[in-house]
Protein: Glycosyltransferase 2-like domain-containing protein
Organism: Microthlaspi erraticum
Amino acid sequence: MADSSSSLPPLCERISHKSYVLRAVDLMILGLLFSLLLHRIQHMSQKDNVWLVALFCESCLTFAWLIMTCIKWSPAEDKPYPKRLDERVHDLPLVDMFVPTADPVREPPIMVANTVLSLLAVNYPANKLACYVSDDGCSPLTYFSLKEASKFAKIWVPFCKKYNVKVRAPFRYFLNPLVAADDSEFSKDWEMMKREYERLSRKVEDASRDSHWLDADKDFEAFSNTKPSDHSTILKVVWENKGGVGEEKEVPHLVYISREKRPNYLHHYKSGAMNFLLRVSGLMTNAPYMLHVDCDMYANEADVFLGRGVAGIQGPLYCGSGCFHTRRVMYGVSPDDLEDDGSLTPVATREFLDEDKLATKFGSSKEMVISMVEALKRKSNPQNSLTNIIEAAQEVGHCHYEYQTSWGKTLGCLYDSVAEDMNTSSGIHLRGWTSSYISPEPPAFLGSTPSLGVEAIVQQRRWGTGAIEVLFNKQSPLIGIFRRKIRFRQRLAYLWVLMCLRSIPELLYCLLPAYCLLHNYTLYPKGPCLGITITLVVMHCLYTLWQYLSLGFSVKSWYVSQSLWRIIATCGWLFSVQDIILKLLGISKIGFVIAKKTISKTRPSKPSQGEDDESNSSDLGKFEFDSSCHFIPGTFIMLVNLAALAVFSVRLQWSSDCSSGGGGSGLAEACGCILVVLLFFPFLKGLFEKGKYGIPLPTLSKAAFLTVLFVAFSEEN
Ligand SMILES: O=c1ccn([C@@H]2O[C@H](COP(=O)(O)OP(=O)(O)O[C@H]3O[C@H](CO)[C@@H](O)[C@H](O)[C@H]3O)[C@@H](O)[C@H]2O)c(=O)[nH]1
Ligand SMILES: [Mn+2]
């Protein structure tokens, strides 16, 4: 283990990126926003509801900008020094790796196999690793593909290590052509590996077309007569690393688990799966560190474990995937519970290791309690043989196992939010833990994002809903201002997730210019004060554009992303608000809608991080529609603005005095409408396109009906 000698240079250094220029720009925009608000308030008395609504929207935007300015005030980055690890680490710790999957159709088993293969092959001693796959889909096909993948791993892992392969997900690796002389040893091995990988993919594909023959195999008996929502726990040790020689010892443990599900039991979606993973791994290997990776991601960099992982072990704002945690943090330990040397304080020992409390907190399994005590005391002894512990592991997978325990409340991944990652993260930060964000080059993990269209919007809707749930449950970063250990600006950072509530002001703000044009009302300040609005828009555009360009993105991807965020706010987050209202009224429950994944056939383009992923694809700006409710608001906004512009141009022909100094609307409002049309441009294209890129007739007619109501209502006044 690492010794904590303070004379050694640090493993990780914080590099500050603060810039006075950027601070000044942020403050200037804030100042402009405040002066706009002031102008509105000063001129309010003579005006009407339109100005009140505009004041509301602009106050929301100002609040958002204020929070963002606070959060961005002193940006920093943690730079890891993996080489320094050699000086202090004499024995690398065990690491358990968790991969959850839930649906063999939406999450193709070959993709899960790739994720697992990339993890089995990381540069880390194989006997220190264990990979656990949780399958909420209870799919024999997923199990089959893991079995096949583990066979392939016996040649894949040695191949990767021999040639120091960088990207160890085979599907991704073989997207690059071979660059070596035809007769070299490497090219022969490469060809052989490629053939074997293709054979693996074919086998999995054949099995997904016809899985009847699986029924005849005794190993698949446990899957017969099961439904994903109704079956007992299935636990299979796919591969056990028993040391041995040669290839045998190169592949880490691989365990397949599918927890019990019964129709009347809540299973808590991914967080329930993560907690079962925690328990089973606790029983089997009990590693002090763990890595969470979604089934749609893969380890992109073989050295992800050394240094970077250890240095970032407390984890950044946990976003569900590509993140390291210590087991003790997941078991609810706070920094205050620890002495300087990392052992539990006497108070914490009484609190955590009290025999009576343990069973009520962690559940009735004796083996589980023993493993917990060992983990808390940092004395985890992995089982000599994984198969010895299967019965106990099955017990902790029962759906009533967590009944009246602390699982999901203060232990493990927290429940009561579909954004279990943010929820758990908030729980950890509230206890006072710090975390670090490490973004190495090349990125340690890469994953797939849904295509631009309903899948992306539904995902955003889930995140938005989950975020609001986090803010209003027991682990809310907003409660306990003086009691909790979380820092003030960290709280603000969580408050930022409230931003999905801005869907309402954004929707209103997209309709206001059109309403004013139709109504012949003024929306923006008149005379020189119009300068405030214009400067704001121009500055914001230039500022965000500069940010995009300096990160290496194109002007087009900047434009697409501006448009995308407006669409996400009005078409996705709007429904998050609806979800929450329906939940509060007890009308419907909130479920985890799994994103549909496709295995990429093209190499990721650079830069490939963060929110720009989607807009960076080759189909940049191509938007897919379907007849779900999600596209009604966007289509409605587009139609209303087009109608308003049409009315405006007719009015222009009637009177030459368009930008009248009087009370009416004019060029400024028309420009507002044009801006909205530009931001919702995919919808304009969707009006004329056919197939999946066209807006379906039912959506169009519903939106058109709303538009007629809106226009009639405006005209009447
Ligand atoms: O009942 C469930 C539902 C989902 N999953 C798994 O959860 C992961 C994430 O699901 P995905 O459909 O890919 O959602 P994303 O929106 O891409 O996931 C992001 O958002 C989630 C919270 O909404 C986090 O859990 C994820 O880690 C984070 O990457 C996948 O591996 C799923 O197999 C389960 O194991 N059980
Ligand atoms: Mn995902």
Summary: The longest helix spans residues 555-584. Confidence is low (pLDDT under 50) at residues 1-5, 308-315, 607-618. Residues 496-716 form one domain. Residues 100-102, 107, 134, 136, 269-270, 273, 294-296, 319-321, 418-421, 459, 462-463, 466, 592, 594-595 surround uridine-5'-diphosphate-glucose (ligand 1) (CB under 6 Å).
